[in-house]
């Protein structure tokens, strides 16, 4: 009988009291709190074995209610809890729940006390890994017992070593056997990963933990030769993406008949990127005597089917369970309203203020947007794009450069960044809304890894406000809704970052500059140093002002208040009438106008070009009116709240639109030729690898894949295709939206024509309706950052 294990408190699993279920025949308990270290591992094992009849349950919670009480919405991650629960029922599992009991006894998680091979302990310790993380602790004993396992845990919590440590322990002990050290030996471990980056990462983690084992990583997009020769030399662990593994099997370079351990990492992503048939073909051809472990964030029907068909009475370990919050602790979430145009201008400010010089990953929906955002950012912050149209070699260089801090902002599509373990990413920016809650969790999970802190910012347009609320419900998280950083905050953060860089200046260099510095200070005092800091920060000229309504540069937001004894109706026309009377140029140039929501106040906020605003503020105005400049949204006046912003972008919100069924249907149209039946390697023949590539013919701007089978930006392609649809539909809607702006102030000179396909604004010239790559005025390029 299998069991369901849940943990409600990640990073706090230290000392466990394991009780048999209250309804079990025996109520004896095994207390692990004060075990002496030597016998610790054996006791853990014994405790688990003794439980093999009725499973354990901890005693702290009366009865675990594993089913979420909340109602799941389609595509909700809550569905996955149901699925996990359902799966447990399918396997006739009973509940086990681990709860922290009493103070942390870190000894019990100490890897030096777990009877692990000393070589493994040494290499783990040299990497700073001294104690098991909760998922590793939960998987450890059942894995050593040879149980098949289905597991999920939050992002960045150490799932790789959860299967890695027990498998390496098994392999290391077997190593005494001479036949297992011979050259040309066949792999005993197969790890399947959905993307090549994840495969490489898993391989790295295993290699660094057990450098004495031969680990080979195989994935598409690179030559077969080096992978084939590594396999022919003899190998213990093969980590790879399904497509390339099948190709290598077909080419007789990879033989799986001695595989003892199978790991399916991110199984749900196999489905998302279209590998389900390949995975099944591989599983069909593995020896039936093996141990299988499946890690998956969600349990779509296909993963459940896999588990039923290919796993043997698996133990389900769920460290997410009915915990509402699906994100790792330590990730602070902000949501910022922006328009498609203003996103572009606030992006570098967000990086400056929230990453504070650390690493940032910006997520876009399409490859093309990743390129354009990265290009635009590069004017102010070193940045590179990562997506499926970039060659494998360049991707590796990009990732290494990012890891090493050669540049600090990576702009990536979803699949590109899935599962990436880059230490110390400080900030995640969801430049566009994710398509589903899982994507949000995975994107955000690139920060706050291994117990560290991080920040994730979601940019949304006013039409996406409800989606943001749905996201909160689905993920079980809470955003803090904030305004984009005010210019003062940007300057302050820039100054701090510049000050931090000063510590890197070599003392000998400092000596050369000291006499001049002394002279400057004598002549100008601290303003000399301030000038130097401003220059270093890139603010040798004062930053241009920015609208608090649209966040566009070059605009100033003003507030007009009319005395409350004036009984005339106050409207946008009142503002333009007032401006015509005082300063006609202002009336001609006025941008957005919003009436203050508070009925007790007669007034409005509105945008004017910076210079015109300055002039207006110097004019005499009729009595009974007050005009002032607003410098900070929401904090400026007690009664004014920034009204909802009019969206000037495409309704590119595909959140929750794609059920698994839809996903596979969509994929159906581009499914791989020759793979309709599980059947086998033989049916694919030698040319299948070419066939596999053959289906990817389109290289359209929507983000269609190139030869990128394993890395597979298929979801990005999906996003791209729909983005285009969104663009089309927005083109129609935008006539209205832009028309309104145009009517109010005439600021938007170019109303998008009905033939416009792209709804956002160009990164080059700032005009809406075309992309930077289609910009008619590339020679006239201007920087927005
Ligand atoms: N016990 C440990 N102590 C310290 N660091 C650890 C431990 N286990 C894993 N790590 C480190 O934590 C980081 C995250 O681990 P890993 O990539 O396996 O997480 P994950 O759960 O697979 O994440 P994701 O779901 O995002 O793929 C890695 O850098 C890994 O080396």
Automatic annotation (TrEMBL):
Transmembrane annotation, as ranges: none
Amino acid composition bias (Basic and acidic residues), ranges on this chain: 689-702
UniProt GO BP: response to stress
Family: Belongs to the DEAD box helicase family. DDX21/DDX50 subfamily.
Keywords assigned: ATP-binding, Helicase, Hydrolase, Metal-binding, Nucleotide-binding, RNA-binding, Transit peptide, Zinc, Zinc-finger
Helicase ATP-binding domain mapped to chain residues: 140-317
Organism expressing this protein natively: Sphenostylis stenocarpa
A GO MF label: RNA binding
EC assignment: 3.6.4.13
Keyword Zinc-finger: yes
Region (Disordered): 650-759
Segments of skewed composition (Low complexity): 667-688, 745-759
Catalysed reactions, as listed in the record: ATP + H2O = ADP + phosphate + H(+)
Segments forming domain CCHC-type: 762-777
Entries under Pfam families matching the protein: DD_DDX21-DDX50, DEAD, GUCT, Helicase_C, zf-CCHC
Helicase C-terminal domain residues: 346-491
A single GO cellular-component term on record: cytosol
PROSITE patterns reported in the protein's UniProt record: HELICASE_ATP_BIND_1 (PS51192), HELICASE_CTER (PS51194), ZF_CCHC (PS50158)
Biased composition regions of type Polar residues, renumbered to the chain: 725-737
Protein known as: RNA helicase
